[in-house]
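Researcher: Let's try something more involved. This one mixes different molecule types, so please make sure each is placed in the same coordinate frame as the others.
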Amino acid sequence: MKHTLSVLVENKPGVLARVAELFARRGFNIDSLAVGTTEKPDISRMTIVVDVAEHSLEQVRKQLHKLVNVIEISDLDPETSVARELVLAKIKVNPENRSEVIEIVDIFRGNIVDVSRESIVVEVTGNAQKLRAFEELVKPYGIRELVRTGKVALPRGK
Amino acid sequence: MKVTGAKALVRSLEEEGVEIIFGIPGGVLLPVYDVLFESKMRKVLTRHEQGAAHAADGYARVTGKVGVCMATSGPGATNLVTGIANAYMDSVPLVAITGQVATNLIGTDAFQEADTTGITMPIVKHNYLVKDPADIPDVVQEAFYIARTGRPGPVLIDLPVDVARGELEYHRREHPQLPGYKPTYKGHKKQVRMAARSILEAHSPILYVGGGVITSGATAELKKLAVDNGIHVTHTLMGKGAFPESHRLSLGMLGMHGTRCANYAMCETDLIIAVGARFDDRITGKLSEFAPKAKVIHIDIDPAEISKNVRAHIPIVGDARQVLKDLNAAIAEVRAEIKAADRSAWNAAIEEWKEKYPLAYERGNGLKPQYVVERIHALTKGDAVICTEVGQNQMWAAQYYPVQKPRRFISSGGLGTMGYGLPAAIGAQLGSPGDLVFDIAGDGSVQMTIQELATAVLEGAPVKVAILNNGYLGMVRQWQQLFYNGKYSCTCLDRERTPDFVALAEAYGAKGIRVKDPDLVDQAIQEAMESPCPVLIDFWVDPEENVYPMVAPGAPLYDMIGDLLYPVEKVHPEKAEEPFL
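Model: All components are placed in one shared frame. Result:
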């Protein structure tokens, strides 16, 4: 079962290594991991998606808590949180189908960030389903390269 | 006024109350050792960095203070690794300080460079790579605070040589600032009350106690809980000394080489009260058949230990001493509301097991290792500090040297580090100079750190090393005999040919005594006890004596093999469903 952990950490050197090492050593798989600064410069937020059973999730959380630089961990419930991911995709185009592709990008409220003769680079944000749907639709044109940021998430309200 | 990083480090250590530093200098540590020269702190020069880490560890276990060890960059640091891992597994407060190459050389594969913080990450509670001299006072303060609080453990400080040479205005915070580190000491009140109720309602409760009781100084509270409620106590190897073993409520050690009584009791109990213990595989045997009838109260300061291996019905996160105190008070309250359950049948069963299955070995027939331990116990009146190596010697020491007080039995539990005993004994001796310190050793283990005899001699640490010399890596040989058709692959150490331990002891300036005759055992122990210098006694024991009773790896606790009354009747290596060794 997939869980999204939002982890507040002290912004100190080696924190990412400590977290990654802990997952590796305890045999937990990371689906995605996104790190960035928060409104406080000395604190970063990691959004970690793990695919583990309930019992292991408990261990992941407890073990993470033992890291001295980890301040707070919350397991984000999809019902009460918002999650987004950004994808950059370089799609093969030619003069015939370019407008078709642009139309799809528009439907997904994406942006075209680079254009060349044979390809365009587009930026789309959304939840996992939306990005998957977008990928499926542009696949027939040929995806040259693609990169995803991994999920970032925050709890709703309050 | 500005001071150098090295001066700031030494001053910070002094402010932490450090009395003694075990270590070996080296290139990048020169600035630090240069300042240490003038410090009042005692510097113990070991002969190998592993010895330094174990000595600091032994010192910490005996005194309850933070042990400090030091090593240079690269090989010095990697040599510390085993000792740090050992302290981590047994939750020993340790601060390890390593030199590092200059910051501008880090990452260039410079001479004697190793990624020390990277290497030690999974075996420390926390570590630091100091890049600015101004950080030194706070880093040292935090390191000691983290090492000794909560669940204790090792903390490493990696100090590049240019940082040690750099300058700073010495300033130290009032309190360490660690927003992400807040150990829980007080147990949840409702949980404690629930535990109290369960204890009174249980028909066959058992206290299963580990090293946490000793670390938190909870022996008095534990004794009160056991005695007031008539609950029997079984301990882990790390919990030896948490409860007096001569007490009528003590069942001795449990697990792989525990007593039959303790293991049978675990199989039948309806309530396990686990205090500062972590349900290690050496304790539980086959997990799926462990304590099938039991409800579990698990008291531990580390929340990650609770429900890790065995599900806890009543988890209580907190310091053992604090929680047991609250638990005793809660029981007194609840007792007014409910009547304690009748436990006469349970107590009778335990008495029967105790009587029927005592620890026993076959006497006569040459010199038995168990006999040697029994005699050390008798002649030291059970009051020595016992350190052990790892393997058969360790198990015989645990079985035949009952301990009555905490911090008197020093052994490498979690990591099972051969070579731990001698340096740990030196650390223990220096930490507690008035005590008689014995290292009950094996001929295999002791040779892994035997060079520390030099340290013992020069530092005036009159430790007594009692080698139960069977000429084998005994525990491995025992497993080969039992589970690998007696094929002794690479376990014979050939004691007839090498080494001559007596000559070796004397070469180091210690005293050496060899004993092959049971009748001369007492005399040798006596002589060692009376000698003011380190003494090594080379007891040539029965080479193929085994440690019994035993739960085969992967077998359930009730399936015990061996001992005098129950000779090896069945061995089920094929039953081992869980991987072992």
